[in-house]
Design brief:
Elements: H1 22-25, H2 39-50, H3 53-56, E1 64-69, H4 92-99, E2 105-110, H5 112-115, H6 125-140, E3 144-149, E4 154-155, E5 158-159, H7 167-181, E6 187-190, H8 200-216, E7 223-226, E8 239-240, E9 243-244, H9 245-248, E10 259-264, H10 283-298, E11 302-306, H11 313-328, E12 333-341, H12 363-376
Parallel strand pairs: 1-2, 1-12, 2-3, 3-6, 6-7, 7-10, 10-11, 11-12
Antiparallel strand pairs: 4-5, 8-9
Helix pairs in contact: 7-8, 10-11, 11-12
Length: 377
Amino acid sequence: MLSHIERSCPYSARRPCTGLSHAQEFAMPSPHTRTRRPRCRALSLLLLAAMPLAQAQGTYGLKYAGVNLSGAEVNSSQQPGVLDIDYHYPAADEYTYFAGKYMNTVRLPILWERLQPKPGGQLDPAQLALIREAVANAKAAKMYLIVDVHNYAKYYGHTIGSTNVPIRTFNDLWRRLAIAFKSDKAVIFGLMNEPHDIEPQAWATAAQASIDTIRKTGATNLILVPGALWTGAHSWYSTVAGQSNAVAMASIHDPLNRYAIEAHQYLDADSSGTSGACVSATVGVERLRSFTQWLRLNGKRGFLGEFGTGKTVTCNLALKGMLGYMESNSDVWMGWAYWAAGTWWNRGYPFNVQPDAQGRDKPQMSILSQQAHRITD
């Protein structure tokens, strides 16, 4: 989700250029104001032979159901910032709560500049320790942890692939992270959150280089690979400079076939995730449909790394339909992580599923929990 102030949006197929960060639009408070899934046999064999490799290997089916625990990525202008004043890592009981709701995955947004203050330099020991603690908390709750580099394909404001941030700088980050966590299969690598202001083919080139770098370390962790243009499912075929994610991302490959294409999808009028409204009860299904067809056509798996809805009846129906659609298409969908939870969101944030001060669930949680139970039980 949006955490940085966006100064320009030349490639935005997802949201209008407001000049405001998502946190500003929804007034995430400072820590000082906390409110915090015989013939028939012959036909079956023929169908199996026609399946993409990922399916034929028996790896299809929804496996991951979870939530984004936001906080470590916030206040990006405060670098490195002060822990629990400028940014916050989730506590152990937050993992326990969501595990109790049958979720088995946490997506943890982090900030590249805090983790690696100098391009090509070592990972900051304190930040790495915090990520290791997050991994330990997730594992104690029997959950997977997605390390999500929440930087929008930028580093200190410069786009990956530019003179200031060549692709090798991005590769270096992932080489170091892969070495740090390659022995831990509970850790999933989220290459980058919502790349934008970068053309799809340029982004695909950078993403492929990092996949190759990770595998050269010997790491076998699952890798989540987003597209450009904010990686919107609804805009997968949209073009900029004559390029689309549908074409650029089709060439992504992994020698271990241990990856998924990560998409995000919101249900407000412009798919921006800046409103809690949902345009219809069927909008979730409608906006996932073309991306789902693309996954199947290209023999790929998908992961819905962000989606969120408000608390209305229409939104509840749209949320239930969206989750059900992924289950019905589990030959190509691998999992999902709802946006968002975290103790620093204010009570008015429409997507917030953090329990209230009295421990009461948010309305969306009953739907999320029921669907997660179907996946993880």
